[in-house]
């Protein structure tokens, strides 16, 4: 069952803003439902973007195919050149500060720290058991997703803990979350959790 598992996961003194602008970020492992959550907010009138948008732009400029492997490597390259929080910093420069915004696919603690320059920023961690994520990944059949279970597990390990500041660190990023959503149920249950969450913000979303 899906549930809004925790608000204020790291005792960050979570207080629901009243009639204010908000910036949300979403982190989680592959096929956890991050993009589905972002799309729900966009349908409610929020702006949506992704840290990987900057990587896609960089890949196009360098005539590289947009694959999961190239996105991962491109992210490492950009972080090694501009610092571990560079993708989030690039998004902050482009986003409208007067519009509720949600960011997909936050993958490093430094991206979180860069976004916390905004007092209204909250990070959502989407939690789903590994085997269920593998099942969902096979069902969605997205370009770039692994089709071999062993490769899937290797990818999980590679993205979990960063070897250096240019790598992804999903475990450490999740530990910085303010909100945890357990997304192991149906789509309608997920939407219900999101409605409960946004009602706590008291925003016109």
Description:
The protein has 205 residues and is α/β, with parallel strands linked by helices. It is built from nine helices and six strands. It has a six-stranded mixed beta sheet. It is globular and about 40 Å long.
Lay out the secondary structure.
Blueprint: E1 3-7, E2 23-28, H1 34-43, E3 47-50, H2 52-61, H3 68-82, H4 86-94, E4 101-104, H5 109-115, E5 121-127, H6 130-140, H7 149-160, H8 170-174, E6 179-182, H9 187-201
Parallel strand pairs: 2-4, 2-5, 3-4, 5-6
Antiparallel strand pairs: 1-6
Helix pairs in contact: 2-3, 4-5
Q: What is the rounded Rg?
A: 16 Å
Shape: globular
The CATH homologous superfamily is termed: P-loop containing nucleotide triphosphate hydrolases
Find the count of extended strands (DSSP E, 2+ residues): 6
Specify the biggest β-sheet: 6 strands, mixed
**Which secondary-structure class do the elements indicate?**
alpha/beta
* Oligomerization state: single chain
Supply the CATH class.
Alpha Beta
Beta content comes to 5-15%
Average pLDDT confidence is 86
Short description:
The protein is 46% helix and 15% strand. It is an alpha/beta fold.
